[in-house]
Design brief:
alpha/beta; pyruvate-formate lyase- activating enzyme; 15 helices
């Protein structure tokens, strides 16, 4: 299970938002995230808010869809009661956990509730995450028939010993099968990879990226492994059972992936994400990076509307109890001040290919751009055109770039 929820102010029982949340809402896209907190096994590296069957303690997986639908219905009342104009959802994303551990009918029912309460824009992007061993051909066909447009498979690696270290349960041979079934159903396909696993060599990583390219997915995500406190992997590293990931090797792996993906026609559009075409970029995740609005449904889910951020009770049983009592599942929230919103805007927008308008930076940040170009962290041509876009070296050092934009006189 994940660590503690963030500190913040108590959320009101009715969930109503301050009046500031409605300001400018018409100019922001609206998405819905549905957190499905169930996993068959707990991966050793994962600190997400997820639960195996023996960790549910009074909650039942079979009850979850109805509880999530209750929150979806409540969400519309909360937004309307807070003066936030109703908007159709442009994206819906089912994440977890493993959403496809639920019956397909449950996922379709939750999507139906979102459609009933908010509506979906024409051509809305509707994604579910899935493990390669959590769906079959019929499941994928039913998801497509029920309104899903996209599936994101947690492949992580094509190398058995790397999957074993990550506690992943699927056979790499199954990935081509599920990709084929998804395409047969008319779904767009994303494949997700993790690099930097203890014991993974550069040759292992090349094998995984080449296995992805052999499937020609529409979209690829590749994330560096982060060792989170409290996880099984962190304990193994602390005991010396496995080696800690190497920053230098991870940088080599990122560069190799970027080279192979670019040669195959994939373009980076966010530090860890590539797509074959602009239309195949994850619009839902772009909404996070651009500071749009989203409602997060489910235990531990986070939401954001107009600079107000809140989070739900973590455990499925506590989440269910609050909904059964007719109160908001939100247990804490924060209203971001102008300085925090600006910091987050720079932090998030600088990660995407469209980059930042340099004129939108404070004077000190604008003055830092020349040095960032000289250091090879920012593209010179786009900077001359008025936008700050990271070079590949800049992507590897994105956090350092942000620090220099926000604190140009501080340590680099």
């Amino acid at each position: 299970m994940a660590g503690p929820l963030p500190l913040g102010d108590p959320a009101p029982a009715d969930g109503l938002l301050p009046a500031s949340a409605a300001i400018g809402a018409d100019d922001r896209a609206f998405g819905v995230y549905v957190h499905v907190p169930f996993c068959r096994v707990r991966c050793g590296y994962c600190d997400f808010n997820t639960y195996t069957a023996d960790e549910l303690r009074g909650a039942r997986r079979s009850d979850y869809a109805g509880q999530a639908i209750d929150e979806i219905r409540m969400s519309r009342r909360v937004l309307e009661g807070s003066g936030v104009r109703s908007r159709e959802a442009s994206t819906v994303f089912f994440g977890g956990g493993t959403p496809t551990l639920l019956p397909t009918g449950d996922l379709v029912s939750m999507l139906g509730a979102i459609r009933d309460e908010f509506g979906l824009v024409a051509g809305a992007e509707v994604t579910t995450e899935a493990n390669p061993d959590s769906v079959d051909r019929d499941d994928l066909a039913r998801l497509a028939a029920g309104g899903f447009t996209r599936v994101s498979f947690g492949m992580q690696s094509a190398v058995p010993h790397v999957l074993a270290t990550l506690d992943r349960t699927h056979d790499p041979e199954r990935v081509p099968l599920v990709v084929g079934w998804a395409r047969e159903a008319g779904l767009d396909v994303s494949l997700d990879l993790i690099y930097g696993t203890p014991g993974e060599s550069l040759a292992d990583w090349r094998r995984s990226v080449e296995a992805v390219l052999a499937e020609r997915p529409d979209h690829v995500s590749a994330y560096a492994l982060i060792v989170e406190d409290g996880t099984k992997l962190a304990r193994q590293i602390r005991r010396g059972e496995v080696a800690e990931p190497s920053d230098d090797l991870e940088a080599d792996m990122y560069e190799l992936a970027d080279d192979l993906l670019a040669a195959a026609g994939y373009e980076w559009y966010e530090v860890s994400n590539w797509a074959t075409r602009v239309e195949q970029r994850s619009r839902h995740n772009l909404g996070y990076w651009r500071g749009d609005d989203w409602w997060g449904v489910g235990p531990g889910a986070h939401s954001h509307v107009g600079g107000v951020r809140w989070w739900n009770a973590k455990h499925p049983a506590a989440y269910a109890e609050r909904l059964a009592a007719g109160v908001s599942p939100a247990v804490g929230r924060e209203t971001l001040d102008a300085a925090t919103r600006e910091t987050e805007r720079v932090l998030l927008t600088s990660r995407i290919r469209e980059g930042l308008a340099i004129e939108s930076l404070p004077a000190a940040g604008r003055h830092a751009v020349a040095a960032l170009i000289a250091d090879g962290l920012v593209e010179a041509r786009t900077a001359l055109a008025g936008r700050l876009v990271l070079t590949r070296r800049g992507r590897l050092l994105a956090d350092a770039v942000v620090r220099r934009l926000l604190d140009p006189v501080g340590p680099s």
